[in-house]
Amino acid sequence: EAQVTQNPRYLITVTGKKLTVTCSQNMNHEYMSWYRQDPGLGLRQIYYSMNVEVTDKGDVPEGYKVSRKEKRNFPLILESPSPNQTSLYFCASSFRLAGDRAGANVLTFGAGSRLTVL
Amino acid sequence: GNSVTQMEGPVTLSEEAFLTINCTYTATGYPSLFWYVQYPGEGLQLLLKATKADDKGSNKGFEATYRKETTSFHLEKGSVQVSDSAVYFCALSPIYGSSNTGKLIFGQGTTLQVKP
User: Fold this and answer.
1) pLDDT digits (tens, 9 = 90+) for B1-25
2) What is the pLDDT of residue A102?
3) Which residue does chain A place closest to B41, by CA atoms?
4) I need a surface site. Which of A22, A35, A105, B102 has the fewest CB within 10 A?
């Protein structure tokens, strides 16, 4: 089954304790991205990656890191989590189709990771 | 800049009622427009899309028409079901010249509750 898999789905942690949320896709997608979802704000992009070893900041990158060493994996790293990073996080992926700008943006989302930082 | 504004929720309807969820956008050029749906406990799924003015996207009885003159992409369904209860997100894909970063700009989401 084609899917984006995130882990963990739920996590409660404390301020300053490093954590990683993993994301893996089995569709051979070039493009991957992380979003956070907060009430009243919709989804905001944190980081994205166009392909292996190519990453760039989204709209709210502060406090986060990413890496793209393999095509299928795109982990989100919180080096020193703070309470304002309490949120619902989504990983997403898609193909990048030359000449089809909409096709490049039909994202497949993971089920989400709910993170609470105390 | 680019932005998407959706009507405030929650929207509560009885089964078989007519649904409209308003969405307006601000963008440069001709963005692509999307509606995504999020069922409880799940990630977002594409519901429908439109890539140019006057295009109508449709799926599962839902429709939305890309109106450039009013910068709108309102979601409609003629007869909702309890199973349509979910959060609906309007989104746009900005066009940055010849590049495509793949980013979507989302509205804040509208919760729909359908009662039997």
Assistant:
1) 889 999 888 999 999 999 999 999 9
2) 47
3) A111
4) A22
3-state secondary structure B5-25: EECCCCEEEECCCCEEECEEE
Residue A89, exposed/middle/buried by CB under 10 A (0-12, 13-18, 19+)?
A: buried
- Most A-contacting residue of B73, B106, B110 (CB-CB within 10 A), to test interface: B106
Q: What is the pLDDT of residues B16-67, one digit of tens each?
A: 999 999 999 998 877 889 999 999 888 899 999 998 889 999 999 999 999 9
**String of DSSP letters for chain A:** ---EEEE-SEEEE-TT--EEEEEEESS--SEEEEEEEETTTEEEEEEEEEETTEEEE-S--TT-EE--SSSSB--EEESS--GGG-EEEEEEEE---TT-TTGGG-PEE---EEEEE-
Express each pLDDT in A3-12 by its tens digit: 999 999 999 9
Residues of B with CB under 8 A from a CB of A: 4, 32, 34, 41-46, 49, 51, 89, 93, 95, 100-104, 106-109
Residues A52-72 pLDDT 10s = 999 999 999 999 999 999 999
Question: What is the maximum alpha-carbon separation in chain B?
Answer: 48
The count of other CB atoms within 10 Å of the CB of residue A3 is 15
The CA distance from B112 to B75, in Å, is 12
